Task: inverse folding
């Protein structure tokens, strides 16, 4: 697998995130650790940049290097192959990859309500999934929604042949909708929508999967089985630092969004970044985890997500949560 993936990550934009002094709380030198995102940086990722800026990762002995991603599917595969120490990706992509034998494991899902959505200009008067019939849909091969959109259609009595799928590179999806080349795009409500609204000056509408019968765990932290076996202590440090960074960012959303300044050329405006992050904060919990720290999962919620994936055809067979989630190192609290 490593040979097949050679060169995957070097082609990905690397975002350097420099912390305070690079010294761990214990006095030793912090260890350089790579984290590959699900996508180019946007507001959802603010806690990682804020955690670096506030010295949270350094405190836990981690010098964090943040890399842009090219879709959750690629991030999961690269993480399983050891081309990045940790990944940030959608749970549907993880479940699909695990079923295919990719040795990756979740170590805590943070977005426990999916932001997956169909996005379009409100003027198109799309109110329900059935209104998508005959519409052109912009998507990107390799991202999480290429798997979950067919499940969304199936859940709502439709099939892929009811729409016209157009595979477009990540940067081109928003342009396709703004120019009218496609009617809608698939994306996260916490990502593209606010940018489209700012660029076009038009209101954006959403069909959120979670509001039309398809909710499931979304983005979270993952690593490889090799890393879990080789350096479980580093995994625990990364989990603890990530949880602390998210908790800190949740209390200071404006400062967290501001910490992303200069993260990437593709970064949206400060106003959009803040809106994206505030939307992300509405996705952190299920009924079972309300009041708990970010990233805390329950086995019962995992079972519900796995059953949803199996029922909708995202995976062929439902396995126990331990097949996807390493509870022993997952966030507590």
Result:
């Amino acid at each position: 697998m490593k040979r097949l993936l050679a060169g995957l990550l070097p082609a990905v934009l690397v975002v350097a995130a420099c912390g305070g002094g690079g010294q761990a709380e214990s006095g030793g030198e912090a260890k350089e650790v790579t984290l590959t995102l699900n996508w180019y940086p946007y507001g959802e990722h603010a806690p990682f940049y804020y955690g670096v800026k506030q010295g949270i990762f350094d405190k836990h002995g981690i010098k964090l290097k943040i890399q842009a991603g090219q879709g959750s599917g690629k991030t999961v595969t690269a993480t399983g192959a050891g081309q990045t120490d940790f990944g940030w990706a959608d749970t549907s992509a993880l479940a699909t990859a695990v079923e295919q034998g990719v040795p990756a494991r979740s170590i805590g899902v943070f977005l426990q309500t999916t932001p997956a959505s169909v996005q379009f200009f409100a003027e198109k008067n799309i109110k329900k999934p059935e209104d998508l019939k005959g519409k052109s849909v912009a998507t990107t091969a390799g991202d999480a929604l290429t798997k979950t959109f067919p499940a969304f259609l199936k859940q709502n009595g439709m099939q892929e042949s009811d729409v016209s799928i157009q595979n477009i590179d990540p940067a081109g999806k928003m342009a396709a909708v703004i120019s009218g080349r496609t009617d809608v795009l698939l994306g996260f409500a916490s990502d593209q929508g606010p940018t489209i609204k700012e660029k076009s000056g038009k209101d954006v509408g959403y069909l959120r999967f979670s509001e039309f019968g398809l909710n499931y765990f979304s983005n979270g932290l993952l690593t490889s089985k090799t890393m879990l076996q080789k350096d479980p202590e580093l995994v625990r440090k990364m989990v603890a630092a990530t949880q602390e960074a998210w908790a800190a960012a949740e209390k200071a959303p404006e400062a967290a969004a501001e910490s992303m300044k200069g993260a990437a050329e593709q970064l949206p405006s400060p106003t959009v970044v803040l809106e994206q992050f505030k939307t992300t904060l509405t996705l952190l919990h299920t009924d079972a985890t309300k009041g708990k720290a970010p990233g805390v999962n329950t086995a019962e919620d995992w079972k519900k997500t796995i059953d949803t994936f199996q029922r909708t055809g995202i995976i062929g067979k439902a396995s126990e949560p331990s097949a996807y989630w390493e509870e022993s190192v997952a966030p507590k609290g």
Notes: The two ends are 36 Å apart (CA to CA). The longest helix spans residues 232-251. The first strand starts at residue 14 and ends at 15.
